[in-house]
Design brief:
Elements: H1 2-37, H2 41-50, H3 56-81, H4 89-105, H5 112-141, H6 145-165, H7 199-215, H8 218-228, H9 230-235, H10 241-267, H11 278-288, H12 293-316, H13 321-335
Helix pairs in contact: 1-2, 1-13, 2-12, 3-7, 3-10, 3-11, 3-12, 4-5, 4-6, 4-10, 4-11, 5-6, 5-10, 7-8, 7-12, 11-12, 12-13
């Protein structure tokens, strides 16, 4: 057992190094690109690296994005650990956030904290239902979960668009968005006036809880073995197919919860297209963190920092939009490279 724990620690160290070396190389390339394409490289570099930490507002928004990315990436990592891959996170997030918004906008005398809990549970259920359907189809008819999760997400996204732009829309405003939630139905803000809420604390708690469950419990061991070695799991008495459904349902639940954090924490309302690519970014963060729970928060923080730095650099310098997008693409390409063992 001690040998296994030591080996696991060695693997985590190797994974960390294999992520940090490409990251350092990507930042070097970014510096070269900035110096070659801007009139004031020094100011642009400062905006890129220090901008996201230059004020409480920027710090709060960067950490808020970190929380959303971390929970989304955790959903991807756990589906991968269970032997599946969830490609419908964006839609699960959208539907989960929409369901939570319907609850939070409903007229009720129920206290605000309880309404927030109900809204969170609704978002978790809707996300788990979408993910679980894909996992069940894989288990029963061997349908590829990448295709089914993506198609289900793509099919329900226009439905969510219609509901937000129609029945749920705030007629008094000009945005394609719901009315704002009342104050006691919004998650507590940690660093006003930024968007940072208690979702950051929940994200950290979920990551550590997932690590403990995966690596410190018998159920977590079976979950990992069923995902990594289905044949061994079969002969060990716990066949892999049921775990496909579990892993996709858990992944969908976490994406649905991310949608709740976005509408109840970040925005305080539900607007059309609010995920804004968070589901896809979660996949990138999971790859950076090598699908290891304890690697996801640092990976999400790095991703949010680079995203915020690119956006600030774009606004504060002569950098072109295409160059900013290219900078982000270079970083994402390099940090997902696996170094040879």
């Amino acid at each position: 057992m001690k040998r296994g724990m030591k080996q696991h620690g060695t693997n985590r160290t190797r994974a960390l190094l294999s992520a940090m070396i490409p990251l350092g190389g990507s930042l070097l390339i970014v510096g070269i690109i900035i110096m070659a394409t801007t009139e004031d490289p020094g100011k642009t570099l400062i905006d890129f690296f220090a901008g996201p930490w230059s004020s409480p507002w920027f710090i709060g928004n960067t950490l808020d994005l970190t929380a959303l990315l971390a929970v989304s990436a955790l959903g991807i990592a756990l589906s991968f650990k269970g032997g599946t891959f969830n490609l419908g996170g964006e839609g699960q997030m959208y539907i989960g956030g929409l369901g939570a918004s319907v609850v939070l906008l409903s007229a009720s005398s129920v206290p605000g904290p309880l309404m927030l809990l109900i809204a969170a549970l609704v978002s978790i259920f809707l996300g788990a239902l979408m993910g679980g359907i894909s996992g069940l189809l894989k288990r029963l008819v061997k349908a590829d979960e990448l295709i089914t999760s993506f198609l289900l997400s793509a099919a329900l996204t226009p439905v969510a668009d219609f509901i937000i732009a129609g029945p749920l829309r705030d007629k008094a405003g000009n945005l394609l968005a719901s009315p704002r939630f009342v104050q006691d139905r919004i998650l507590l803000r940690l660093l006003p006036p930024s968007n940072l809420s208690v979702s950051l604390l929940f994200a950290i708690l979920l990551i550590f809880a997932s690590y403990v469950l995966l690596y410190r419990t018998p159920a977590g061991y079976r979950f990992r073995i069923a995902g990594a070695h289905p044949e061994f799991a079969h002969f060990g008495g716990f066949p892999a197919p049921p775990y496909w459904t579990y892993s996709m349902a858990i992944s969908g639940a976490l994406h649905g919860l991310t949608g709740f954090f976005a509408v109840a924490g970040t925005y305080g309302l539900c607007h059309q297209g609010f995920p804004g690519g968070l589901g896809w970014s979660g996949i990138a963060v999971a790859l950076i963190g090598r699908n290891e729970p304890l690697g996801l928060f640092p990976a999400a923080l790095i991703f949010a920092w680079l995203k915020a730095g690119s956006d600030r650099m774009l606004l504060a310098s002569s950098l072109q939009v295409e160059t900013s997008a290219f900078v982000q693409a270079v970083i994402m390409l390099l940090v997902t490279i696996r170094m040879r063992k």
